Structures are given as structure tokens and as C-alpha cells.
Amino acid sequence: MKVLVYIASSLALASSLGGCATVTRGTTTQFNVTSTPPGAAVTTSTGFSCSPTPCGMKVPRKDGFDVTVTKTGYTPKTLHVRSVVAGGGAAGMAGNIILGGVIGMAVDGTDGAMNDLTPNPLDITLEPEAAAQAAPAPASQPASPAAAAAVPTPTAKP
After folding, report:
1. What whole-number distance in Å separates Cα of residue 41 and Cα of residue 70?
2. With a threshold of 0.85, does the pTM exceed it?
């Protein structure tokens, strides 16, 4: 019986070494992007991409990154996504205090499991590209000197 208790305690200790948030939340998350208009391409500064919007990708929680959304005929937009400690991550850290100890805290604190990405989902509105600038029209000139004389000119009143 003592052997069974020893094995069960060893397994419980070994499973807690991974860090509570790492075990319960994981180090990656689903990141979703929607755009107006839909059908845009999405790339991140960390090398992930999806297309066409609405779309999603599984990305690490650990660090923030830039997201660029592009669509033909629209001005590309780049936004920053932050990685912040989330409520679920804080609960995982509390679990480490009870079960995981210092090792669990260190694992969760360095692998991003305590974090969430914000904003997620990312909803972005693209602006149409400006129309090509037309060549400036020449200044209008009267058709004849008689027409120029017919145009009234302001006069000062005494």
C-alpha cells in the first residue's frame, strides 16, 4: 500500500512541474481576424498568416506582434496585438502556489501560458485607396475679349 501511495504522489508531483497554466491553458491560442470588407489577407510579424478574412490561426501567447491586413483596392493597415497576463493565467499561477511551487511558477512565467492576446478577435476596417489624382484643369479663360468685358468687376463704393 505504501508503494501505491508513493507512486501516486510522484505522479501528482511530476504533473505539476509543467506549471498549472501551461497544463490548463497551453502556450498557444486561436487568434481570429475579421475585416470590413471581408476577403482580406492577414500576415503577422512573427510569420503567421491566414486568408481570406474572416480567418484564424493558432499563435503563441507569449509575445505581442504586429498584424498587417491587405486587400486589393484598399489601403493596408497594421495594428499591434499585445500579450497581457489574463485572469485565467492568474488562476494558473494561484494553482502553482498550491501545487506547482517555484518550478511551476517559473515555467508559466516564461512560456506565455498565463497570457492572452489583446485585441482578440481583431476586427479591422479597411479604407478604399484614394482615386488617382487627376491632372489639374487649366484655369478657365473667357472665349473672347468681348466676353471678358461682359464679366462684371467689383467696384469700391465711396
Report:
1. 5
2. no
Extents of the domains making up the chain:
19-129
Residue 125 neighbours by CB under 8 Å, 6+ apart: 35, 36
> Which residues touch 113 (CB under 8 Å, ≥6 apart)?
19, 21, 22, 25, 26, 27, 61, 89, 92, 107
- Identify the band that residue 114 occupies on the pLDDT scale cut at 50, 70 and 90: confident
pLDDT tens digits for range 31-56: 999 999 999 999 999 999 999 999 99
Options 3.40.1000, 2.40.10, 2.60.40, 1.10.8; CATH of 19-129: 2.60.40
**Mind listing the pLDDT tens digit for each residue in 95-105?**
555 555 555 55
Closest by CA to 55, choosing from 71, 63, 65, is 71
Find the Cα–Cα–Cα–Cα dihedral 63, 75, 127, 77, rounded to 10°. Answer: 10
DSSP string, 81-94: EEEEE-HHHHHHHH
